[in-house]
Design goal:
alpha+beta, OB fold (Dihydrolipoamide Acetyltransferase, E2P), BirA Bifunctional Protein, domain 2, eight-stranded mixed beta sheet, five-stranded mixed beta barrel, 12 helices, 28% strand, elongated, Asparagine--tRNA ligase, asparagine-tRNA ligase activity, ATP binding, protein biosynthesis, nucleic acid binding
Length: 430
């Protein structure tokens, strides 16, 4: 007999089936034992009775430790009270490995304890739902770009220089010199766009910012499209379409996960393009109108982003930031050289920035000037300057932060639960 996963049981009603997984819970009611089997595809109740099983199996069902691995055989039956509509009437059970006493008991634990046991915490229903939601959001984003004809490329993790600023670099020994963990795949994405037209990079990025907020990780994943011959407004339109599709697919394909996470989906159901767009200067006026002290020319922090995003019930595009608070590669606004053609997308409900991007500087002379202004070493960037020497074109792109997007869609408080093994200032284990 071939074994099944829980999500396939409905196809075999009334038939003998075999399942393999772990005991997530158990309880007794008179002469009946109830085991909850978890296999990564779902959880199903398995009913053990004396008249259907041997005395050994019935005895085992009453004492088997949580998270022991088992093979369960039985009849698949309809059960309207079950969350998945089916249960298993057990005829046989084999314990593969008996678990030791499980450290994550059926009680509340502190975050520190759970993070120390992250490798086991992943087995809980909410963490399982978060990772499935993350997988679906990533799949949606990649499919979105694939269907538009974008080419997926890989950018190196080890780089010779900074792309976002030298104060947030992780330096590593690289044979006889220093290298740095990438802050973004963007610069290499630009090179690929000059060869392939429209591309996207999906990979990890690293920031050594000493931030201990609910929105910050030191290692996180991004999807970063770059488009040759595209300009500013086209890029905003693309980001808007991507977020619309992510929300649509999350509501359709991850509804069970959102239910487990107790997400109020009424907020998400309002998220349909078009999204509001305001300039940085308009955002500053909005903040001041709400009593927030803020100086024009400063960058928005988490508090300011929350106030702005809570002012709208849809994601908010903020455009045309002061050039001095943006990266060296941002193109200046031709109508106001104080400003960069930069855009951030702030998620509603106070979740803050999930997308950052804009138009890239395509002038060799201007880019050389920006590198000097930012105090960057020009030598490691010669290859990047070559992109302007040999057939420069208008081009643009953005980066979508996977973890922040999942945090918003899931409606949870802290970004640390949206990646399997989070890396924080004070967290490198497990």
């Amino acid at each position: 007999m071939n074994w099944l996963t829980v999500d396939k049981v409905h196809k075999f009603e009334g038939q003998q089936v075999e399942l393999r997984g772990w005991i997530a819970n158990r309880r007794s009611s008179g002469k009946i034992r109830f085991l909850h089997l978890r296999d990564g595809h779902g959880i199903i109740q398995c009913v053990v009775t004396k008249d259907q099983t041997s005395a050994e199996v019935f005895d085992l069902s009453d004492r088997i430790p949580y998270e022991s691995s088992v093979v369960i055989r039985g009849i698949a039956k309809k059960e309207p009270r079950s969350p998945i509509g089916y249960e298993i009437s057990v005829t046989d059970m084999e314990m593969l490995f008996e678990a030791e006493e499980y450290p994550i008991a059926k009680k509340d634990h502190g975050v520190g304890f759970l993070m120390d046991h992250r490798h086991l915490w992943l087995r809980s229903s909410k963490q399982h739902a978060l990772l499935k939601l993350r997988s679906q959001i990533t799949r949606t984003a990649r499919t979105f770009f694939d269907d538009l004809g974008f080419i997926s490329i890989e950018a190196p993790v080890l780089t010779p220089t900074a792309c976002e600023g030298t104060t947030s670099l992780f330096e590593v020994a690289y044979f006889d010199r220093s290298a740095y963990l990438t802050q973004s795949g963007q610069l290499y994405g630009e090179a690929a766009a000059m060869a392939l037209g429209q591309i996207y990079v999906h990979g990890p990025t690293f920031r050594a910012e000493k931030s201990k907020t609910r929105r910050h990780l030191t290692e996180f994943w991004m999807i970063e499209p770059e488009m040759a011959f595209w300009e500013f407004d086209e890029t905003i339109d693309l980001a808007e379409q991507l977020i619309g599709k992510i929300v649509e697919d999350s509501l359709e394909k991850s509804r069970d996960e959102l239910k487990i996470l107790e997400r109020d989906t009424s907020f998400l159901e309002k998220i349909k393009p078009p999204f509001p767009r305001i300039t940085y200067s308009e955002a500053v006026d909005l903040l001041k109108g709400k009593g927030v002290e803020f100086n024009w020319g400063d960058d928005f922090g988490a508090d300011e982003e929350s106030v702005l995003s809570e002012s709208f019930d849809k994601p908010l595009f903020v455009t045309r930031y002061p050039a001095d608070v943006k990266a060296f590669y941002m193109k200046r606004d031709p109508h106001d050289p104080r400003l960069a053609l930069a855009v951030d997308l702030l998620a509603p409900e106070g979740y803050g920035e999930i997308i950052g991007g804009g138009q890239r500087e395509d002038s060799l002379e201007q880019l050389e000037h920006r590198i000097e202004q930012h105090g960057l070493d020009r030598e490691p960037l010669q290859w990047y300057l070559d992109l302007r020497r040999y057939g420069s074109v208008p081009h643009a792109g953005f980066g979508l932060g996977i973890e922040r997007t999942v945090t918003w869609i899931a409606g949870i408080h802290h970004v640390r639960e949206t990646i399997p093994f989070p890396r924080l200032m004070d967290r490198l284990y497990p």
